[in-house]
């Protein structure tokens, strides 16, 4: 069986001679780039209403770059970490650092100090940009490892220097102000291979183990934006009105966190490339999001399954008729929930997509109502051949985007045919470079000839729809975020009550999965646990042990179960399939107990 190819093949050259800010901010005439309304805003702060057009963004990025260069001497290969919730200046800091040739590593603002410290050390970060709300954690993380002095920490929000008990900190605005007094003091990277430079060190747990830094080049993100632009036929002639994916004046909700690869690539860079206004929301709140959709006349939504599940009948209180498109990613969405979601927005076209950090986001994506015929589209430098079918099937992850090839590999190593499950391998120009400073993990996932092993079990239908049916890898998906069982197991084992531990996920309609811990107690503690009240106290103590040291989505919301042993193979590797079977039995018994209590 040959490899699976997209239904539309595009012999299009993806540029390697520009960086991300050169592509987004400086290139206005790309043949795939829709035109904007004159004077339209690019970024809008949902809280303050402050808006930025392209000229102000370019100036702000330039002044930031000059000030950062003057104060810290940042240059090619230096790493800066962004540890903050969404902020209207977040993308401008990224682009300023990229102008200098620096690498950006985005961190979850909910991280504990130890989790942030791990990322700072792993990336050898030189600077740390954070928010006022996260400043205390940022200080603790930086000082505990003696990574860099407090003077290397910059705060996003305040207009003037941030004054705290720990001292005074530079702010993004104060750097912009300083930049106005500076002449050009750096040389921007240019050349035929400048796009090969690393743009981001984004963290993912990969197929197994602790989080690893994924090296993403400038050309990877640029290619993915252009691939999706081709997939959505952004500048195809003959399309009118709602047949077009993006229209002049459209606006998109920027509620996905920008530190997450989905929010970073699709909800930020692709949306701006499409000519839309991005309304930047610092934090997700369901009611606030509905109000913002109405206030800003939002037309496009990029969201995750937990947000879909929350869309209940209260939405009928709002006029959301202008919402034309929604994409759901980061975790699978059931067919039933999809149908319910569509029913609330009869005008809206929606579907799912599939990707991962290792693929710089999108591999497959729903089609935006293509016409049922074949047609050719020509421009001055390329020819596109499209073979269109029906809109992607509910429950599928859409169809392969242009220049992406998939392979389904069965357990015996043979290549699967249509409708046969196996591990999904993918190849394309958007594939990341490697796991930074981790040769072993790189060799396991980034294979010769450009293939990336996803660790997900999938199948492909003859119609071209990709269905992700299960995760072969150990990683859990909680609220769309990756959770490595090994990380939680390692943390549980150092607790004095615990002799051994294993963690798997249990299904949850809202979160997708919840971590459930199987714990082997130390002998003396095990005796105490024979008393039901003592057992519950120990469970709560272990859950608190995780909650006090890990970000919210890593908490043991699935509970803690005591076992005599964690199943392992002769080499000591946890047999997760057996643990999952035990987890299913735990869920079944809980359900039966719940029914019994209801009867009483």
From TrEMBL:
Entry's Gene Ontology molecular function annotations: CoA-ligase activity
Domain spans labelled AMP-dependent synthetase/ligase: 48-435
Keywords: Ligase
Domain AMP-binding enzyme C-terminal intervals: 487-573
Listed Pfam families: AMP-binding (PF00501), AMP-binding_C (PF13193)
SUPFAM superfamilies per UniProt: Acetyl-CoA synthetase-like
Ligase among keywords: yes
Keyword Ligase recorded: yes
Protein name, entry field: Phenylacetyl-CoA ligase
């Amino acid at each position: 069986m040959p490899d699976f190819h997209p239904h539309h093949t595009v012999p299009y050259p993806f540029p390697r001679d520009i960086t991300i800010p050169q592509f987004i901010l400086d290139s206005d005439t790309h043949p795939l780039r829709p035109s904007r309304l004159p004077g339209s805003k690019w970024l809008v702060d949902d809280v303050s209403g402050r808006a930025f057009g392209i000229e102000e963004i370019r100036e702000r990025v330039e002044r930031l770059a000059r000030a950062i260069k003057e104060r810290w001497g940042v240059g090619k290969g230096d790493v800066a970490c962004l540890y903050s919730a969404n902020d209207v200046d977040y993308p401008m800091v990224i682009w300023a650092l990229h102008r200098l040739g620096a690498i950006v590593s985005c961190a979850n603002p909910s991280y504990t100090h130890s989790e942030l410290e791990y990322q700072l050390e792993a990336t050898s970060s030189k600077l740390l940009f954070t928010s006022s709300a996260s400043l205390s954690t940022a200080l603790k993380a930086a000082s505990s490892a003696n990574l860099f002095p407090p003077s290397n920490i910059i705060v996003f929000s305040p207009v003037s220097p941030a004054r705290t008990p720990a001292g005074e900190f530079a702010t993004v605005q104060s750097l912009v102000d300083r930049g106005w007094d500076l002449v050009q003091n750096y040389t921007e990277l240019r050349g035929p291979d400048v796009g090969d430079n690393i743009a981001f060190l984004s963290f993912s747990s990969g197929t197994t183990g602790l989080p690893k830094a994924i090296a993403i080049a400038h050309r990877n993100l640029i290619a993915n934006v252009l691939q999706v632009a081709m997939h959505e036929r952004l500048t195809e002639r003959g399309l009118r009105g709602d047949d077009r994916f993006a229209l002049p004046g459209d606006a998109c909700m920027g509620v996905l966190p920008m530190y997450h690869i989905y929010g970073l690539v699709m909800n930020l860079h692709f949306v701006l490339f499409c000519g839309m206004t991005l309304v930047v929301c610092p934090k997700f709140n369901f009611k606030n999001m509905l109000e913002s959709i109405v206030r800003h006349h939002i037309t496009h939504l990029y969201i995750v399954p937990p947000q879909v599940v929350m869309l209940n009948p209260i939405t009928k209180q709002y006029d959301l008729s202008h919402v034309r498109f929604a994409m759901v990613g980061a975790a699978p969405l059931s067919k039933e929930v999809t149908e319910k979601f569509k029913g609330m927005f009869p005008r809206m076209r929606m579907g799912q997509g599939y990707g991962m950090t290792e693929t710089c986001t999108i591999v497959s994506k729903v089609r935006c109502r293509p016409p049922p015929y074949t047609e050719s589209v020509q421009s001055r430098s390329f020819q596109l051949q499209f073979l269109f079918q029906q809109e992607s099937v509910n429950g599928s992850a859409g169809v392969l985007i242009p220049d992406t090839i998939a392979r389904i590999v069965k357990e015996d190593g043979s290549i699967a045919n249509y409708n046969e499950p196996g591990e999904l391998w993918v190849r394309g120009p958007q594939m990341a470079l490697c796991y930074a400073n981790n040769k072993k993990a790189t060799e396991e996932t980034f294979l010769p000839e450009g293939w990336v092993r996803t660790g997900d079990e999938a199948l492909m239908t003859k119609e071209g729809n990709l269905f992700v049916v299960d995760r072969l890898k150990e990683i859990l998906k909680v609220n769309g975020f990756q959770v490595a069982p090994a990380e939680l197991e390692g943390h549980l084992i150092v607790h004095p009550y615990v002799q051994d531990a294993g963690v798997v996920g249990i299904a949850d309609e809202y979160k997708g999965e919840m971590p459930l811990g199987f714990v082997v107690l130390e002998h003396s503690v095990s005796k105490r646990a024979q008393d039901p009240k003592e057992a519950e106290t120990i469970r709560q103590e272990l859950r608190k042990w995780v909650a006090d040291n890990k970000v919210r989505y890593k908490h043991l919301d699935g509970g803690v179960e005591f076992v005599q042993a964690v199943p392992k193979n002769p080499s000591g590797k946890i047999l997760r399939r057996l643990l999952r079977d035990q987890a299913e039995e735990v869920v079944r018994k809980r359900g039966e107990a719940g029914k019994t209590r209801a009867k009483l």
